[in-house]
Amino acid sequence: xxxxARALTAGVALLERAIDYTLGSLRVVxxxxxxxxxxxxxxxxxxxxxxxxxxxxALNEAALGHIAPARRPVPVGGPAPGNPALLLRDGAxxxxxxxxGTIEAGMVAVGNVPMTTPMVAAAGAIEITVHGWDIARACGxxxxxxxxxxxxxLDLAQLFVTDEDRPFRFAARLRPPPLGTAQDHLLxxxxxxxx
Length: 195
Prior knowledge:
- Strands 1-2-3 form a 3-stranded mixed sheet.
- It is built from 6 helices and 3 strands, in the order ααβαββααα.
- It has helices spanning 3-26, 45-63, 84-100, 117-138, 147-160, 182-189; strands at 66-67, 107-110, 113-116.
- 53% of the residues lie in helices and 5% in strands.
- The longest helix has 24 residues, at 3-26.
- By secondary structure, it is mainly α.
């Protein structure tokens, strides 16, 4: 196996671990909590789930080599009735299937920025995991990010998230608590209060 294939395999495995963690958070979502605030101060839980659905669609497109610049708007009249977490779980499963079928590491056009497929998978893993934590918090659940996953994502986040991304894509970096875990450092780096 060459270096590019190994990188793709590692990226897909990381994405799978992120989705697995987030699926656990989605199980506690019910329609009556959709209006709750999330650690993402711009979004309530419904809006966060809509954003994640959009992200899953973009990840599916990325596995095919190109992410379309315009995302699908929410239908007039708001989201469909029912539990959007169920749709999101289906979307997560589809992402896993699509990426598991990606057999060649190549380049993906993300807007005008070329990225390798392993980089896209890693960036997706960061977003999916942290939003999985956001979902659990909004639902009043304590679901720590697994330590090894948090450590790996922290290293990647420090490469991918720069000062130019703040405050537009990410909130300002916060100071982690003294003796904080890898999860605490990851969340603080991405602008969330770990506690």
